[in-house]
Amino acid sequence: MISLRQTMSALGISTSGNVSVLGSLYGFLYQRVPDDPDPAVTSQLSLRDKLVGITGRYFNINVISVGWDNFSGDERRWIEYAIFRAHGILKAGGLGIGRIGRYHINAADARGRDDLGSDDEAEDLTQEWSVNNDGLDVFVVDNISAGWIGLSPVPGPCDKEAKGMNGLIGGEVNLGALQLARTFSHEMCHYLGLPHNHGDDCPTASSARDNLMAQSRCCNSTRNSTVLTSSQQSTIRTHCAVHNR
Predict the structure, then answer these.
(1) Among residues 22, 53, 202, 226, which is most buried (max CB within 10 A)?
(2) Bridge partners of 183?
(3) Which residue from 146, 122, 241 is spatially nearest to 189, judged by alpha carbons?
(4) Helix or strand (DSSP H, E) at 61
(5) Is 97 exposed, middle or buried (0-12, 13-18, 19+ CB in 10 A)?
(6) Torsion angle in degrees (nearest 10) through CA of 107, 108, 110, 112
(7) 221-224 — which CB contacts under 8 Å span 24+ positions?
């Protein structure tokens, strides 16, 4: 049987010294399961689900917080919740999330990229701050004034030297916990190859509005509209960033 330390080592996660499962394996800075925004809902994690997920098809991510020093305590916890929710949403889509790197860029170092005012600024951010590994670079910024709440190429490249966006904007941190969590997973699935499931008009079928790839303006619920069809699951499982163990 492969030990937890061996599994983490295989993912490229350091196992020297004291190892925190919640911090090192799940990427939670506070080393605790994030609270649900609804106090009546108890957040639960399954270590077995995590390990099963990364023994099948999985991908690694780098969560890059831009303008970190200006994030409130609540906003920092909302990122934790987005990572937590992504595990469940992608598990239902047949994918595990493996290594989760956490990176912080303070506002002064971001040179204005903590407030994205255009697609070009988003592209520049992903080029200037890409992480030199095989993980998807998922940027969460302080504010977006460009008229959208997240942005990603469809599909995104695995070559981080490619022109254009070689990462994705997983949302602006002030969206609130539920909206940030949905946008975070929605944009990752764009990067893995999924377009919106509708055109300019919102879908009329309730099932389509419950799909993760319905735009936020169209979805039934920011909490529950996270469904992926079998066809969508097949698509994201074949992206070049996905590992198959």
Answers:
(1) 226
(2) none
(3) 241
(4) strand 57-66
(5) buried
(6) 80
(7) 222/178, 222/179, 222/181, 222/182, 223/178, 223/182
Provide the residue-wise pLDDT of the chain in tens; the chain has 245 residues.
456 777 777 778 777 777 788 998 999 999 999 999 999 999 999 888 888 888 889 999 999 999 999 999 999 999 999 999 999 999 998 999 999 999 999 999 999 999 999 999 999 999 999 999 999 999 999 999 999 999 999 999 999 999 999 999 999 999 999 999 999 999 999 999 999 999 999 999 999 999 999 999 999 999 999 999 999 999 999 999 999 87
Residue 34 is encoded by which pair of tokens?
């994030």
The encoded tokens of residue 45 equal 């994690």
Structure tokens, 174: 């002030």
Q: Are strands 96-105 and 168-172 parallel, antiparallel or unpaired?
A: unpaired
Rg (CA), the chain: 17
The pTM is what?
A: 0.95
CA dihedral 224, 228, 165, 156 (to 10 degrees): 160
Tokens representing residue 156 in the block? 């995104």
